[in-house]
């Protein structure tokens, strides 16, 4: 697999085999969201708050989250590791679609500010379809 950090971000991409090592090699800060714990919108927002280090107010709605993710003080290059992405989308299709829309819109807005936010779908180590 080509290294995703070697080119500009393009929507939600598959995470490299060792995303932390790859991100460090390209000087990309990496944040992780554990989607395996998200069972409804409230728990998803809690996981987003923890993983993205956004204030509680940012998780009151999708619009608030988008505003928090696109603040001018965001890092120049960072990645969001979506752990358990495939299973989450299977279990919670509507929430997955909403989350995807906000994250990809934030990625687009940040790109207009000459910033890069990589969205990386991470799968369980034991998932043979990933490798």
TrEMBL record:
InterPro entries: Barstar, Barstar-like_sf. Residues 30-120 form the Barstar (barnase inhibitor) domain. Pfam families: Barstar. Belongs to the barstar family. This is Nuclease inhibitor. It comes from Deinococcus radiophilus.
